[in-house]
Amino acid sequence: MSTRSRPVGNQQRILLRSRDRTSYSDTTANFNVTMREPLFGRYALKWATIPNQLFNINETNNTFRFFADGKTGVPTQKITPGTYTGTTLATYLQSLFTTYAGYTVTVTYSATSNALTITPDAPHYIRLSFAQAAFTETDGTYAGTFFDTGAMNAWTTLGFTIDSAFYVGTFAGASLSVTSGPIALFTPASVGIRIRESPDAGYTSVATQSTGTLIVPLPITTTASYNFTSSDVFDQSFTIPHATKSINIRVVQPGTGLDQTLNNAEWEMLIEHELEPETQLGSGRPEKRQRTDMGIPYLDRGVRN
What we know:
By secondary structure, the protein is mainly beta. The protein has 2 domains: 5-54 and 188-274, Sandwich (Jelly Rolls); 63-179, no CATH class. Helices cover 7% and strands 35% of the residues. The protein contains 2 helices and 15 strands. It has helices spanning 86-101, 154-157; strands at residues 5-8, 11-17, 30-51, 63-68, 76-78, 105-110, 115-120, 125-129, 165-169, 178-179, 190-197, 214-217, 225-229, 237-252, 268-274. The strands form 3 sheets. Strands 1, 2, 3, 11, 12, 13, 14 and 15 form an 8-stranded antiparallel sheet that branches. Strands 5-4-8-9 form a 4-stranded antiparallel sheet. A 3-stranded antiparallel sheet has the order 6-7-10. Strand 4 and strand 5 (76-78) form a beta hairpin. The radius of gyration is 25 Å and the shape is elongated.
């Protein structure tokens, strides 16, 4: 199915789809789209359909190192992206730790404290670290670059601090178990959509005359997608200040401006361009709309192959 756009009175409706991105090496959350005719002027968001795949654990907050006595090396471990509760996260971690260690590492979740407790079977011990640099059994330093350094990260998600690199079990100076602080498993309440001239020119919000972000609420739902329809109460617009054939579309976290992963699920949105009446010089008659791709009066398909 090709991208379509059609004139409605003095307005031009344009369907923007992630599947029409210029390069499939780009993610569906940060990509460029190229039109045959330039975009220019004011555009309003009419509706957006976002897939229900905004996991609370993803590639931005799932990585750490795990050491178990009796094993060689300190491998990097990754929690499989998905939507977890405290209980299902504890179950997953217990299986992950136990499978690798070769002995039982119990992980429980307390709904009262919203915390995890990790306990390896005696006489064994384990160690967790959120630093990219490997450590040895006796290495107590936390130097090095840390995994997942954005606002969402593994140590915050699991209820620890960035410099948490601790022994648990029957090891000198170690506790027999460790309890985290409150874990952080949040599904975003909204996403932001930034549309700008590609690659680096910004756009201007009509309401604030400053760089801004279109906000798409994500209500709690069990359906396959979030469907948002704009209205006069929640009208949102943006302006392309310079005519351009190439735009960048980026999905972000509204509070931080950081990329919001969609786990490469495809999505789409409809924007509406308000057109000024055009007349041919000397004729007094409306100028005939030309047939183009996205962004300018258009009747068939939009993105250049």
